[in-house]
Amino acid sequence: MAQFPTPFGGGLDAWVISLDERAKHDQQFVSLAPSPAGYITGDQARNFFLQSGLPPPILAQIWALADMNNDGKMDMHEFSIAMKLIKLKLQGHPLPPSLPPSMKQPPLTLPPPPTAPFGKGLDKGRVHLNSLEASFPPSALICTAG
Description:
This protein is mostly helical. The protein has a domain at 19-104: Recoverin, domain 1, CATH 1.10.238. It has 5 helices and 4 strands; from the N terminus they run αβααβααββ. The chain has helices spanning 19-31, 42-49, 56-66, 76-90, 101-104, and strands at 40-41, 73-74, 126-129, 132-135. The strands form 2 sheets. A two-stranded antiparallel sheet has the order 1-2. A two-stranded antiparallel sheet has the order 3-4. The radius of gyration is 19 Å and the shape is globular.
């Protein structure tokens, strides 16, 4: 099985598109006026991607990786993949030889936040992990010996 190095070293999967990145990419995608079917053309993408300053041959490699079904157009997910690859390349990281499995995953979505009666107790036991939040009852965070 092919190993995909993490560009930042360590155990974090740098190929994963964060929720914040995805939200930004989605806004950019919508600004390009996709078709009613939810796609942008190669011309629309090329003109936008050229603004990154990356050379056209590199952008062609990114397109080849991100256009997962090779249909010559991009949906919102494929566009987000391309934007993440552009960001990593601009940071000096090499492009992968093939699309890492974590980038092929559908984007993560968060469930609606829990509500508490009268708005009390929402922040108790909240742990922040890479833009994702998990809420635990305070009793679950207490360690007892014995």
